[in-house]
Design goal:
Elements lengths: L1 E6 L10 H10 L2 E6 L7 H10 L3 E5 L13 H7 L5 E10 L12 H17 L3 E6 L2 H10 L7 E3 L6 H9 L2 E5 L9 H9 L5 E3 L21 H11 L14 H5 L9 H12 L3 H9 L14 H7 L3 H9 L15 H8 L2 H10 L11 H7 L3 H9 L14 H8 L2 H9 L14 H7 L3 H15 L10
Parallel strand pairs: 1-2, 2-3, 3-4, 4-5, 5-6, 6-7, 7-8
Helix pairs in contact: 3-4, 10-11, 10-12, 12-13, 12-14, 14-15, 14-16, 16-17, 16-18, 18-19, 18-20, 20-21
Bound molecules: zinc ion (2 copies).
The site of one zinc ion (ZN) has 5 residues, from loops.
Length: about 475
C-alpha cells in the first residue's frame, strides 16, 4: 500500500480524467493522496476533492511561486484548517529560483508569507508542507525562528543536500522524495535518500509534474507514487517481505484522526495515555467526548497502540467500550489481533478472539502470518484451532509456513505441516518455504523440509538461493 503525500489533482490536467486517475490509484494500491493547495482562489476545488472522496485529503496554503494572488492571513488559514479533511498547511516556503535579477530584499514578501503559514500551522496544530528551491538556508532559518518544530511537517519534493535533510529532520520534518529520485541524473539525491531514515521518509508524485521513470515526461498521477516507492525501497534495500513495514505514511495519516472531529491536542493526550497505560486519563478523555477509535499521529488506532505498548489496563477498558472497533487497522493494515499475534501475547489474542470475535482471516496480511513471522507457536496453534487458514497468503504470496521457515522455529514449521500447510506454494517471487529457510539461514529446517518434499513428491528439490 502506498500514499501519495503530495499531488495537485485540482489542476486542469486532471479535469476531464479524474475518474480514471482515481481508479488507477486503486489498481496501483495507492490508498490515499494529499491534494495540496497552491493559492486561495483554487482552494475550494482542492477542498471539494477531499470532501467528495473519502481517500483524498486537502491542505490549505499559498505557494511561494504565486505572486499576484490574494495574500493569506493567519486567521484565514486557521479557519480553513478547522475542516476535518484539511490535514496540513501549505504548500509554503521559499523559492529563489525564479528571483531572476531581482534583489534579495525584493523577495521579502515571500518570507513574510512563509512566516504567516508557519504561525497558522502552530495555531491550528497542523503540519507544514514546505517547498524550498535555491533557498534552503533561509528556509531552515525561518522555520527555526518561528518555532516550526512544534508542528513539524514535510520537506516536499526534496532535492537538497543530506545536511539540509538532517537539519529538517531535527526540527520534526519528514523528507519526501518525488519522481526526481528515479531519474538517472539524480545520483546525489539517491545517495541522500539512502541516508534518510525510513521512518523519516515519505514519497510523493507532485503530479501532474515530475513523472517517475518509466513514465518520465508524461502527465504524472498519484498511481505512479508506487514507482517512486519501489525505487526508494530498492535504494534502501527494503526487500519485498518487509514492504509492509515500509514507512511512508506517517504524515498523511498524522491527522486523519482529526476526521473524528477531535482536537489534535486531545489526540496527543490520548496517544500518550494509551502508551503509558494511564487509565484515568483515557477515561477522562472518553468522558470529554474523544472517540475510542481515535488514530494516533502515526496511524495507529488506540487499541493497536495499547496492544503494541502492552498497556493492559487501557486495553481492557477500550475493549469494554461498546463503540470499540476491534478490527480497526493502522496505516499498514495491522489490526490489534495482528499486533498481539506478532508479539506473542497469547492472553490478548485469546481475549480478542474469544470475547470480541476479532477477525482471524482478514484479506492481506493476517494474524497467523504475523504470529508465524516471529515463530509464535502458542499463538499460531490457538489461531489455527479457532479457524485461521493455514494456507492463507499475504499480498506477496507468503504463507504461514514460509513465515515460520523464516522465523527459524522448527516446532512451528512441524505444527503447520501437521495442520495441512502446503509445501508446494510459492510466493510472488517464486520462492517456497524451503527457499525461505535457506535464505534466512536455518539449515536444519531447510534439510527437514527437503526430505519431506522428497518423500511427498518423489523428486529432488532445487533450492532457489537469491531473493
Ligand atoms: Zn512544491
Ligand atoms: Zn506541489
Amino acid at each position: 500500500m502506498f500514499i501519495d503525500s503530495h499531488c495537485h489533482l485540482d489542476f486542469p490536467e486532471f479535469q476531464s480524467r479524474l475518474p480514471e486517475v482515481l481508479s488507477n490509484m486503486e489498481k496501483a494500491n495507492v490508498q490515499n493522496a494529499l491534494c495540496v493547495s497552491v493559492d486561495l482562489p483554487d482552494f475550494p476545488k482542492v477542498l471539494k476533492l477531499a470532501e467528495d472522496h473519502a481517500h483524498l485529503y486537502a491542505s490549505v496554503g499559498v505557494h511561494p511561486d504565486y505572486e499576484d494572488t490574494p495574500e493569506p492571513t493567519v486567521e484565514f488559514l486557521v479557519e480553513m484548517a478547522k475542516h476535518p479533511k484539511v490535514i496540513a498547511i501549505g504548500e509554503t516556503g521559499l523559492d529563489y529560483y525564479r528571483m531572476g535579477d531581482r534583489s534579495y530584499e525584493s523577495m521579502e514578501w515571500q518570507r513574510e508569507r512563509f512566516r504567516t503559514h508557519i504561525r497558522a500551522a502552530i495555531a491550528s496544530r497542523r503540519p507544514l508542507i514546505i517547498h524550498t528551491r535555491s533557498a534552503s538556508a533561509d528556509t531552515l532559518r525561518i522555520l527555526k525562528e518561528e518555532g516550526a518544530s512544534q508542528v513539524g511537517g514535510v520537506m516536499h519534493c526534496f532535492t537538497e543536500s543530506l545536511e539540509v535533510a538532517k537539519a529538517a529532520i531535527e526540527m520534526g520534518f519528514f523528507i519526501s522524495f518525488s519522481g526526481i529520485v528515479t531519474f538517472k541524473s539524480a545520483k546525489d539525491l539517491q545517495e541522500t535518500c539512502r541516508q534518510v531514515p525510513l521512518d523519516k521518509l515519505l514519497i510523493e508524485t507532485d503530479s501532474p509534474y515530475l513523472a517517475p521513470v518509466p513514465h518520465r515526461g508524461k502527465t504524472n498521477e498519484p498511481a505512479w507514487v508506487a514507482q517512486v516507492g519501489e525505487f526508494v525501497a530498492g535504494l534502501k534495500g527494503v526487500n519485498n517481505y518487509f514492504r509492509l513495514f515500509f514507512t511512508q505514511v506517517a504524515l498523511a495519516f498524522a491527522l486523519i484522526g482529526t476526521a473524528y472531529g477531535q482536537a489534535p491536542s486531545q489526540i496527543a493526550d490520548f496517544t500518550k495515555a494509551a502508551k503509558f497505560d494511564d487509565l484515568s486519563e483515557v477515561k477522562d478523555l472518553v468522558k470529554a467526548g474523544v472517540n475510542v477509535n481515535t488514530v494516533d499521529p502515526y496511524g495507529d488506532p488506540m487499541l493497536v497502540l495499547a496492544v503494541k505498548e502492552k498497556s493492559l489496563k487501557v486495553f481492557d477498558y477500550l475493549l469494554s467500550s461498546p463503540q470499540i472497533n476491534v478490527n480497526k487497522a493502522n496505516s499498514y493494515g495491522e489490526t490489534p489481533l495482528m499486533m498481539a499475534s506478532i508479539n506473542g501475547d497469547l492472553e490478548l489474542v485469546k481475549t480478542l478472539v474469544e470475547s470480541k470475535q476479532a477477525d482471524l482471516n482478514k484479506a492481506g496480511w493476517n494474524p497467523l502470518l504475523y504470529a508465524c513471522s516471529k515463530g509464535r507457536l502458542d499463538v499460531a496453534r490457538f489461531l489455527v484451532q479457532h479457524g485461521a487458514d493455514v494456507n492463507s497468503t499475504s499480498p506477496n504470496g507468503s504463507t504461514p509456513l514460509m513465515m515460520a521457515a523464516m522465523s527459524g522455529n522448527e516446532y512451528l514449521v512441524k505444527y503447520l505441516l501437521e495442520q495441512g500447510a502446503d509445501l508446494k506454494i510459492r510466493n510472488s517471487l517464486g520462492f517456497s518455504a524451503i527457499d525461505m529457510a535457506k535464505q534466512y539461514d536455518h539449515p536444519w529446517i531447510e534439510d527437514g523440509l527437503i526430505s519431506r518434499w522428497q518423500k511427498l513428491y518423489k523428486e529432488p528439490y532445487i533450492v532457489r538461493s537469491q531473493l
